[in-house]
Amino acid sequence: MSEKRATVQIVSIGDELLIGQVVNTNASWMATLLTEKGFHVLKIITISDKSEEIFSILEEVSGRSDIVLITGGLGPTKDDTTKDVICRYFSSKLVFSEEVFSNIERLFYKRGISVSETNRKQAEFPDKATIIPNSIGTAPGLWLEQNNTLFVFMPGVPFEMKEMMGSKLIPLLSEKFHPDTFIFRTIHIQGIPESSLSDMLEKWERGLVSENLSLAYLPQPGILRLRISGTGSDKALLETKIQNKIEKLLKIIPDDIFGYDNDSLESVIGKLLMDRSATVSLAESCTGGYISHLMTSVPGSSKYFLGSLIAYSNEIKINELGIDKRIFRKEGAVSKEVVEQMATGILRKTGSDYSVATSGIAGPDGGSAEKPVGTIWIAVASHSGVFSQKYIFGKMRDVNIKRATATALNMLRKVILQVPGYNSGSEI
Amino acid sequence: MSEKRATVQIVSIGDELLIGQVVNTNASWMATLLTEKGFHVLKIITISDKSEEIFSILEEVSGRSDIVLITGGLGPTKDDTTKDVICRYFSSKLVFSEEVFSNIERLFYKRGISVSETNRKQAEFPDKATIIPNSIGTAPGLWLEQNNTLFVFMPGVPFEMKEMMGSKLIPLLSEKFHPDTFIFRTIHIQGIPESSLSDMLEKWERGLVSENLSLAYLPQPGILRLRISGTGSDKALLETKIQNKIEKLLKIIPDDIFGYDNDSLESVIGKLLMDRSATVSLAESCTGGYISHLMTSVPGSSKYFLGSLIAYSNEIKINELGIDKRIFRKEGAVSKEVVEQMATGILRKTGSDYSVATSGIAGPDGGSAEKPVGTIWIAVASHSGVFSQKYIFGKMRDVNIKRATATALNMLRKVILQVPGYNSGSEI
Prior knowledge:
Number of strands of chain A: 17
Number of domains of chain A: 3
CATH class of the largest domain in chain A: Alpha Beta
Largest sheet of chain A: 6 strands, mixed
Distance between the termini of chain A: 62 Å
Structural class of chain A: alpha/beta
Shape of chain A: globular
Oligomer: homodimer
Strand content of chain A: 25-35%
Helix content of chain A: 40-55%
Number of helices of chain A: 16
């Protein structure tokens, strides 16, 4: 199969990238999306925001790929000289855009801010450029063609760039270049370490190669994603091949796959609860609100998420969750007894159908010989009982919080689904 | 003052970087260290590991900077390609290096592995290159000079590259180039939009230019960072110049700067509370636990953070925080009255010295004509009263949660510091 993909060079503008203050995650995000959509990223170039540097990079990349994507240098302030450079390089001149200005006015009006002189200047655009609207920020993107290259300029603010690229630019590029079909599916797994999974999947992985499919392991704290991908002209055939491999994978690890593609533990749990018209509440100690944050980041979560108690101090644990003081003194906050009482306490208090509780030592300090940093108890309660497990993670606070959160959410998922071994909790 | 820093181009080799599977943290790490040591990074270029790409990038970067640092393509598997390219580009030939071979033998002996024929090939090096020993891996680095440019090749494995760069390469470069000092400071601001700040600082910014200092605006949801930087031979003078500009900035926006450099809102608030031996608790609705998560992500936060109630359902707001039911029905959950009662309710319940409450419509659904998506009330309570403000943000749930969180934390900071206008709350 010959290489038919349209080629892309990515140019990131920003002194903060060159002095190492900011890691260029924008470029990686763009490269991932472009690759997934069937484009071939040839080069990523990071340069300063000095106008002569921007001008010379335009000369350098021109004609060397079908597309050049440039981010940064389009904000409202004075470090943004890009528009002048565009005018010079593309022999264009700045004209006031009523459309861009009214978008700025609309955004500012909603935020209760008045429009300034700087904002009028922001609405000036090179006359040869086509504007790409920015639905969530004041600086739109733009594109121009020259020397058989499509030059696209986008703001560098990550969430504005991502929104613009996903909803406006990718459809535009796909229509212009009809890239070969690249298909991938991502499988989300919780609770199996990367090296163990790799051993378990050895035979299954060999099968992928003979079908011209590729596999990548993408680990995150507490979660492991597998990405199966393939390229070709027959989309339906590719989809079937990948689906067959997933069916085989499900036979090897039936209970640990919690979702696919854009699923997250919190969105999957949200659907499970909605399907059952069930509700949930949380009593978090060591996870400090991170489980609540993830659950409430799902649109519509107010339908099943009643609330949480972040019980950091011992007084709050005892007074608000009704923990037995003698047991608390005897076993300590990080114990099976206390985490189970936290889970049943919040269940009673909120009247939810399910509850989750965490209690542990996130670190970096606070450990002991008996309970080292990284020791974390997690409990899930429901009307049929309470189930708990102990984990020992590492020494890094942020990683421990994330691993405990993923583990707790997956435990809740398994209890809801009554996975064998997860419904045999003690009676409340 | 003329620019006297030695210039550097960084070239990262690796297909995994171009498909977005790996974020180029190596380049950021190198850029940070080089900048701190007084070198000027002009460009970061990421290319594929195909040999023709490597050859053509050598032609492209040659003569355009004093130094070119190339990472990747020197491991035991890809070795031959890069070394062949080097031989071709620098008209050199491969010779066996006894020194490199004995290092490989030493490492293998320690790991209990025997040396193979492939390893002998690994010890062959271009005869015009000077070897940079690798004390923790088998692939050494090397450097060559051509066209007034010093070309340095290093392995791409992060810990090997870092060790080599810190202990061998930086001393070598410093001796060769006697670099000038580069200094930067970052100023963190909350609550002023980028364009408004740009208007307010117009005169102050002009002053920077005449002092040969540079400025960059670095926005994040709800937070704006300013970076002032400068280069010169006199480090103390530079530090004073930058400090003077910060003093002048403090006169223009005395209350909105919350920190510098590695500070975060949550770490700054942590210090303020520790200094006062004060405690805090939260009643979060629309922010769903994100404020709690940030506060508890600070090591040692259990000393001042007592806990939170994430009151998502109306029942929990009313039952657990003692909200007046009639007021709740009349004003709705997203109102001045309810958010203030939430703040005073959690203060009473936990006995903390300060409390913060949020209630709003994070979106994407749930808005009305009177209270559109993005409407958010924030209250801060203390023993001396309760203070609240209303904000109208945008339509994106995740951005709204982040902006509301940054705004709420900064409001708490201002109340703790008794900033004028933030201590005139109503009596509890």
